[in-house]
Amino acid sequence: MIWKDRIKQYPHRYTLTNVSGSTYDFTEVTGEVTEAGTPVNAKNLNAIEKAINSKLIKELSININAKPPLSGNWSAKTWTGLTNFNGNYIWTDGTNIYYSEAARQYVLDVATSTWSAKTWTGLTNFEGYYIWTDGTNIYYSVTTNQYVLDVATSTWTAKTWTGLTNFNGGRIWTDGTNIYYSVTTNQYVLDVATSTWTAKTWTGLTNFNGDRIWTDGTNIYYSVTTNQYVLDVATSTWSAKTWTGLTSFEGRYIWTDGTNIYYSEATNQYVLDVSTSTWSAKTWTGLTSFLGPYIWTDGTNIYYSDGTSQYVLIPKKSIRGNFQ
Fold it and tell me: Which candidate, 304, 260, 316, 320, places its Cα nearest to that of 69?
């Protein structure tokens, strides 16, 4: 529909007719009308609503397909500069991607798949597995070796904590609000503002390790063999969790492609239906036996790196419409 303005000889002329007292009727004086215009009525307004809703639905369809789903096909990946490395030593400062394994320190140029030697100051021999973040700063924690990174200058400086001074970054986890350190009965929560760790009390589960904790994006779980728990964050209570299809597994083998959640332990390959808590067998092509901890992402692609075994997970081609 093409909307048109009404065009008349006298656009603002009316006559007043006294009805009673101070009450008047307005009567339009149009003069010559050269364009009747489009009526503003229920029929025309409803047509607008219908068109808007149709457009939104189509745009939503585009957004859903904006990120191509993964095909389940792994293809060999070729890197330059560094060809033999493990995914569990890779980490990011939010901008760059690094590989850190003892004295082997590299930074990735994502566009060219090229790894180049990286020089750090203050700390030059360390492993990426022990790096963690509080959402603002980046830390390296191994026993009493505690450091914080100045990203701008690539400089590591000694970090002082209160309450807990000897711990490993690989056991740190978050519920999305707080940061915790969990090793057997050593349970702590961090006050980020004061760099202070204080003892944390849990209910239902009091002896566990942080590297077995994982999330489906909504709930937080602890998984070690048949010990399966889900956390009520508000009450700090762990309750027994029942799964279907896969009942004995470890959280450290779980990973996500950003849409689905998978469990990968050698030839044991599963995908999770979150809504029903059901694990189903997953079939991959190109790579069928691999471990979840060696999977990593550059923010766009997903890779598997286990020494000389280097793979990339291929996305499906998506069909996209152009709606007018």
Answer: 316
Q: pLDDT digit string (tens) for 82-140?
A: 999 999 999 999 999 999 999 999 999 999 999 999 999 999 999 999 999 999 999 99
Q: Are 199 and 188 in contact (CB under 8 A)?
A: yes
Contact 224, 254 (CB under 8 A): no
Can you read off the two tokens belonging to residue 272?
């999770």
Phi, psi of 67 (to 5 degrees): -105, 110
Domains of the chain, residue spans: 7-61, 72-94+105-117+171-315
Task: Decide if pLDDT at 188 tops 50.
Answer: yes
Q: Read off the tokens for 146.
A: 């505690």
Who's near 224: CB < 8 A, 6+ residues apart? 208, 209, 212, 250, 251
Tell me the mean pLDDT in the region 8-31.
75
pLDDT in tens, 261-299: 999 999 999 999 999 999 999 999 999 999 999 999 999
Residue pLDDT, tens place only, 62-93: 333 334 445 579 999 999 999 999 999 999 99
**Which pTM value belongs to this model?**
0.75
Q: Amino acid identity of 212? A: R
**CA-wise closest residue to 105 among 86, 127, 83, 131:** 127
Is 2.110.10 the CATH number for 72-94+105-117+171-315? yes
- Write out the DSSP string of 156-221: EEE---BS--S--GGGEEE-SS-EEEEETTEEEEEETTTTEEEE---BS--S--GGGEEE-SS-EE
8 A C-beta contact, residue 124 and residue 103: yes
Q: Where are the alpha helices (DSSP H) in 224-270?
A: none
Residue whose token pair is 């930074």: 107
Question: Do 96 and 110 meet the contact criterion of CB atoms below 8 Å apart?
Answer: no
pLDDT at 2: 57
- The Cα angle at residue 229 between residues 227 and 231, in degrees rounded to 5: 155
